[in-house]
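Researcher: Next entry in the queue.
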Amino acid sequence: MTDSSLLNSELELQQQEELYQQLLLQTMGQMQTENPDSKVIRPQPGMCVKTLTEPDKQKVFINICQSHAVPPPPELCKEELMELLQSDDPSGYRVPMSLGEPHTEVDNSSQGCTAYDVVINQDFFQKCQKDPLFHQFIILVCVEGLENKYNLELSRDWKVLKNRKFLGSVGEQNIRTKSKPVIEELQPQESKAAPAKRPEFTLLVEPPAGDPEYLVAEIRLPGLPSSRSLVLDVGEDRLVLTARPSLFHLDVFHQFLVDQDSSVAQYNSSTQILTVTMPVASS
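Model: Structure for this entry, 283 residues:
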């Protein structure tokens, strides 16, 4: 569930997501006509895996979703999987999947984090749920797929959330219906969007006088219906924000050193302002 601090209500969240998806589908309408080998799907939640980036220990959540639109991998029994994992080249077995773009969310501790949506075949997902070896295998495949696509290094000390199948809200993905030979990933198609704009923003120091305790960024994002499309990266002295699809992009440096782990982001859909509160470590 999305943290209530980002939205006014669950109903508002649903309305905003529907509006965003309508706008997204409109931008992809021409692309669908020109590329009949692709289609838009809305996958079903499967399981949510929590891990960390290395070496900076940033929280990452992997939403492993399921859909019959994604083709299944070749049949593999448990004995064959064990042999595969013990072989010198386990990469010879490919699992078709769709890797979505990162999106910013808020965890149960009201801390900002990054989530990725990965979609695999529904029958294969159900098979992996029934056997612990396959269960760990599909998580490893998704982790490695994200690492390869986004140049990440993720911890293998992951945790599957018991009471949550998805962090955020389930969005639509555009996937190919006809795969290329020996394909591992179904790439979401990129729309031909206008160049991203630099949004208006202000940086405030709290308190205004004396030793600074917080650095507050207020970023105006007119026309953005939901925080679902935001990708936020808070560095020690840098703030990078991207609003998909190619709506806004902001990359600024500041004079303070902030506590990245304790920083919190909140999006007000009424004012369409993103507020990022960053505790100051030192000036």
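Model: The chain has five helices and 16 strands.
Researcher: Noted, moving on.
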